């Protein structure tokens, strides 16, 4: 069993980022609800605990509390935000509610060196002050302060208990990764055995245990996640795996030819291609609601796969490239404040009545871990570092009704945007590249002028972000001449489009995809 840090999730929407930061230190992190039974938690033999925090005050009725077994275990504990408040309360300190909670950037002033904070660092941090510590527990020391927050960090070095009133997991706290690394490596004494090879070995064992000698069907979309999932399951079960690529009519330009070449020529995979574009467009006719689109696409996918299996023999399992951010964005923590943002195509759009059991070997991995696994499995770099592409394809980027004509407009615009970014050396697999970029077709028309004639056509929105984890993201700051060039090409080369806009919304408050 690998060394494990247990993150007790108090309901923060950023709890998964703590797990990612821990894993950056090559230490496995398991994210569990704060009220998970003691037996299940301690079965992991955790080297330490991290309390994730919450958008609520720790003093509110029914707020998450620190389980008694965490203290009794004598393991190191790090409390973040209201997780710090819960830790202080459990040990006899005093906490009061802040009438005006603060969630913004502050300069940290480190008052005393410790195993997680060093004097002289004084980093910029993202504060989260719903509560205020007024009296520290016996044996604790104040480690850092910030404006309007006299106790921004505190700790009991002897018992290895620490509390932070800021969020080290967020990119807004540049030194946050180092702080978490100090906790898991120096305080918890983890050796760092969560390597890429360990991830692969663990996934292979799980797949073999689940599948046995049954045959498996994998759905290949040409995206990073489905490709790595297919390669990983193939490594685990070999010839038991059959891969199917469905041309939905909702794919990127030249996608079908690219997938055939990548999987058949480069990987030698047993790939079955199915042309189902007519079926998908027929089923999507008249549907504009994004959640309804996802359900229809999920239903159609499964029905197409089920029909395909009649020619492939007895197939019991279905591989999906679900990754951790997919799961987090779709779940509803009953005990916390992390509410579902949207139903993800890999976790919420599948019909209940289907003839497959799901195999999801990547569901606990972040995107950067998925790419590293893909490289270690020997997948082509151009496949591993492709731009992320949603399972429902262009349907979730074609706002409003999905028709062949509207999708073709979007496909052409998206190809132009991608081509210009590639020529400028700005794609994610290139040094300094962005993480994701795409076009969105909006269901509204604007007045324009083309060739001296009045036009009344649809508009394209461009979306590009930089991120390391896809849980938070910043919009990509492109030079104006690049955006001008893209706009001129789209409005002149794509029929039925007369306006281009650029989305400058971060995540949060927006999500990366529009639907």
From TrEMBL:
Catalytic reactions of this protein: XMP + L-glutamine + ATP + H2O = GMP + L-glutamate + AMP + diphosphate + 2 H(+)
Family annotation (InterPro entries): Class_I_gatase-like, GATASE, GMP_synth_C, GMP_synthase, GMPS_ATP_PPase_dom, Rossmann-like_a/b/a_fold
Gene3D superfamilies: 3.30.300.10, 3.40.50.880, HUPs
Active site: 167, 169
Enzyme class: ligase
UniProt function note: Catalyzes the synthesis of GMP from XMP.
Subunit annotation: Homodimer.
The protein, known as: GMP synthase [glutamine-hydrolyzing]
Species whose genome carries this gene: Candidatus Brevifilum fermentans
């Amino acid at each position: 069993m690998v060394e494990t840090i247990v993150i007790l999730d108090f309901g923060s929407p950023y709890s998964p980022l703590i797990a990612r930061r821990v894993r950056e230190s090559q230490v496995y992190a398991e994210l569990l609800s704060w009220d998970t039974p003691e037996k299940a938690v301690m079965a992991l033999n955790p080297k330490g605990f991290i309390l994730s925090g919450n958008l609520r005050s720790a003093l509110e009725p029914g707020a998450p509390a620190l389980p008694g077994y965490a203290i009794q275990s004598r393991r190191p504990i790090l409390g973040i935000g209201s997780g710090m408040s819960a830790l202080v309360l459990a040990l006899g300190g005093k906490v009061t509610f802040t009438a005006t909670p603060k969630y913004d950037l502050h300069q940290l002033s480190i008052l005393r060196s410790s195993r997680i904070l060093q004097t002289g660092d004084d980093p910029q941090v993202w504060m989260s002050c719903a509560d205020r510590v007024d009296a520290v527990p016996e044996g604790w020391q104040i480690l850092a302060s910030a404006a309007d927050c006299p106790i921004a960090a505190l700790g009991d070095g002897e018992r290895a208990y620490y509390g932070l009133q800021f969020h080290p997991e967020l990119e807004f706290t540049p030194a946050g990764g180092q702080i978490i690394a100090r906790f898991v490596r120096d305080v918890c004494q983890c050796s760092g055995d969560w390597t890429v090879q360990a991830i692969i070995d663990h996934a292979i064992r799980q797949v073999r245990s689940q599948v046995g000698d049954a045959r498996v069907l994998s759905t290949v979309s040409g995206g990073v996640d489905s490709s790595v999932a297919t390669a990983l399951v193939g490594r685990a079960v070999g010839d038991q795996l059959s891969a199917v690529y469905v041309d939905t009519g909702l794919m990127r330009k030249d996608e079908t030819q690219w997938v055939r070449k990548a999987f058949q020529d480069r990987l030698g995979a047993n790939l079955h291609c199915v042309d189902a574009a007519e079926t998908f467009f027929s089923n999507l006719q008249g549907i504009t609601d994004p959640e309804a689109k996802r359900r229809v696409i999920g239903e159609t996918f499964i029905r197409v796969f089920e029909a395909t299996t009649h020619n492939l023999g007895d197939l019991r399992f279905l591989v999906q490239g679900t990754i951790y951010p997919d799961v987090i964005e779709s779940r509803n923590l009953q005990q916390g404040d992390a509410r579902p943002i949207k139903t993800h195509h890999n976790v919420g759009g599948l019909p209940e009545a289907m003839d497959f059991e799901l195999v999801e070997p990547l569901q606990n991995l972040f995107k950067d871990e998925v790419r590293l696994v893909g490289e270690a499995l020997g997948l082509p770099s151009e496949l591993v570092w492709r731009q992320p592409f949603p399972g429902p394809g262009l349907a979730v980027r074609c706002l409003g009704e999905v028709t062949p004509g509207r999708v073709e407009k979007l496909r052409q615009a998206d190809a132009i945007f991608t081509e210009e970014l590639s020529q400028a050396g700005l794609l994610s697999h290139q040094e300094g590249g962005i993480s994701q970029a795409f076009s969105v077709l909006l269901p509204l028309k604007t007045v324009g002028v083309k060739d001296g004639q009045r036009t009344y056509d649809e508009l394209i929105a461009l979306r590009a972000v930089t991120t390391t984890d896809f849980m938070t993201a910043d919009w990509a700051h492109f030079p104006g001449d690049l955006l001008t060039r893209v706009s001129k090409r789209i409005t002149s080369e794509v029929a039925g489009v007369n306006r281009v806009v650029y989305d400058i919304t971060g995540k949060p408050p927006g999500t990366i995809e529009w639907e």
